[in-house]
Amino acid sequence: MVTIDEIKRLGQSSAKDHMEEGRRDYPYMGYVLRKISPYFAKFFVDQNVTANQVSALSILTGIAANMTFIFGNYYLMLLGCFLYQFWNIFDLVDGEIARVTDVKTAGGKYLETINGAITECGFISCLGIGLSKILNDKTFVFWGLLFALCYALLHTFAR
């Protein structure tokens, strides 16, 4: 049985460069979500959930969050924002589980690579569709899809 301190030591401290980069580039993730993620990681490790399964859960949570924005409903968009927090947490937890259990796979690397691209591009395009419904202006669909395409290209070339 793994403890929270072991998760912080093995799952977070062993990726010190990655953690520092996260704090610098994404302060909310680095200073807030990293404080919450070990508790989720402990739960998943105790339930024998693998890092790849958490990655798949993260992708599904991101897609569900995206779908809430399409309808152009204020309350569904709030739900989508809430789901995005879980997507971010699960995205952190999968790496912590992989480091704690010392199980790293090519499939996990692939899931990690497509996770951000699917969710973030989907968010931009779904937000454009939702805004077009709220504001009754179809140009938001165009701009959402265009920015999603640009983000996907930048994401691909950065890799």
What does this protein structure show overall?
The chain has 159 residues and is mainly alpha-helical. The longest helix is centred in the last third of the chain and has 30 residues, at 106-135. Helices cover 86% and strands 0% of the residues. It has seven helices and no strands.
Key words describing this protein structure:
single chain, 159 residues, mainly alpha
Largest sheet: none
Strand content: under 5%
Determine the mean pLDDT: 89
Q: Looking at the structure, what is the overall shape?
A: elongated
Spans of 5+ residues with little confidence (pLDDT < 50)?
none
First-residue to last-residue Cα separation = 36 Å
Number of helices: 7
The structural class is: mainly alpha
Radius of gyration over all CA atoms, rounded: 17 Å
H/E series, N to C? HHHHHHH
Q: What can be said about this structure in brief?
A:
With about 160 residues, this protein is mainly alpha-helical.
Secondary-structure map:
Elements: H1 4-12, H2 16-25, H3 27-46, H4 51-70, H5 74-101, H6 106-135, H7 139-158
